[in-house]
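Lay summary. Proteins are chains of building blocks that fold into shapes, and those shapes determine what they do. In this project we predict the shape from the chain. Here is one chain we studied, written as its sequence of building blocks.
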Amino acid sequence: MTSSTYRPTLWTPGDWNAFFGFGTNILVNMLTLTALLRFVLKMPDALVFGRILPAVGLMMFLSTMYYAFLAYRLAQKTGRSDVCALPSGISVPHMFIVTFVIMLPISLKTGNPEKGWQAGLVWVFFQSFILMIGGFVAPYIRRITPRAALLGTLAGVSVTFISMRPVLEMYMTPVIGLTCFAIITVSWFGGVRYPKGIPAGLVAIIVGTAIAWGSNVIGLSYGGLSIEKLAAAFTSFGFSVPLPAFNTVFSGFEFLGVILVTAIPFGIYDLVEAMDNVESAEAAGDAYPTTSVLTADGVVSLIGCLMGNPFINAVYIGHPGWKAMGGRIGYSAATGLMVIVLAWFGIIAVLLAFIPVVAISPILLYIGMLIGAQAYQTTPARHAPAVVLALTPHLAAWCKTLMDGALGAAGTSAAAIGMEKLGAVGVLYHGLEVLGGGAILTGLVLGAIGAFVIERRFTEASAFAAAGAVLTFFGFMHGESIGFAVTPTVAVAYAIVAGFLYALVRYPEFVSVEITPAKEAIAHPAE
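And here is the predicted shape, written in a compact code that computers can read:
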């Protein structure tokens, strides 16, 4: 059968596994998003359930359907039956950034949560265009960047911001967390099949929910659930469709100065993250066009923004995990339909009160484990040090995030305590601040320098060091905001490194090393 006549199967048995796995991942994110809107930003339920969540549902429906279509087209083109759709949804890092850096400060300053909502819409408006424009640059960056750098910085995200919170939640409620983790790992890693082919993710949720509600009966209350909370959640039932919010978007332009400081660097973050995730999918056997992916993310984010959604869409980390579970095309489309139902009918609040989040946490940990492992498994073994190097900025960013949260809860800050006092007890806060600034770009640049040095391709290593100097000077790396000479000493240090590496090529007679000529790219070593 030729590829032109091949008709891919829209649903396979493995799609059930991926649907319950990915669907619960999306569910966790939607529950978290709803909690941020209601309890942190103090937005009224009419706004949350009547305007924002319906727009979120529309955006995610369009996104998941588009990526199901891309997978269908790739399967048809290649004649393969194992093509897996790219996972997508609300960008989790941005969910917290736009909440705590944009919407919350403006809501508090104005005393009006709706002003915060307006500012969030403008933030997404600008990021959408950055994604669309960057889609035409990203393929070139992928071609010149080593896979160890792309996947190494992605592994940093997975180990810290994806894996650590779920594993901590599991050990805070171990009876549910570890039990559900065992149910999932023996199936997805160990190959155990449950009766009648029931997906492991669904088994874990059923068992975890049963333990949580059963503990309520005997007075132990694992999982924080209660009949009172569940009954109150049913008041959110209703039907709401997204409505245009054009005037609301443009009203938020009064906060443009505050917004651009984060919108531009995080737009670049999205470019790099999407490239990493496309690279991850290609390493798992499914090659998607980077330009189409980034442009789609920008377009659906813009549509969501104009309908009232202050959160950006992104291709998710985790494609190899869903593919390993048996996910193909249907799981993505089914997730889109699920999101529409959850968002438009106000069901999220009920689920938030019925399912213990800790029962879902092991699924996120599994994805983090798989992505972290992929950075080593699909790159040359000799590049392992470069992968480790790419991890370090994310460890710093994660530690700083925890410290800032803890100090803020105590009503103080690192600056108020003083760097010397913190340093005296072994906390090098300023080091965490500098290394963790722009972590995903920093990890990519460090990983690329490391991989090229290992290959003794010092010209390319020098070029990435020079790029690091420029990005650092303008605050895209090692800084919290865009500007001039944000961290000048670090920029100068990168420039010195670039000069040193180039000198090794320009004056090889002064060193005892064989310079490897740049004959072929190392961005895709499997090809």
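What the prediction tells us: The two ends are 25 Å apart (CA to CA).
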